[in-house]
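Hi P.,

Sorry for the delay on this. The queue was packed all week, but I finally got your sequence through. Input first:
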Amino acid sequence: MKNTPHFLSRLEDIFAESDYMLRYEKGNFKAGWCLLRNTKVVVVNKYFTTEGKINCLTEILRTIPLDTDGLADRSRKLYQEVTGKVTVTG
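Then the structure:
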């Protein structure tokens, strides 16, 4: 995995294709992000570097339960790479 804006965009696509909403906001987050579970909103510190945002998003993807049925094949493969979780479709 590379810490590039393109890779960050691909991680953001996973959230866009899921039922979670990803937002970048300013805030005083202890971990750099927070998760509002009842509303499925993920908030990441907007002042983080690209590398910091990527680290947060990969950590979040490993933490949350995500239905991969709605993901495009490319996003599903990336999700599997990032989380190490094998998904079954169909």
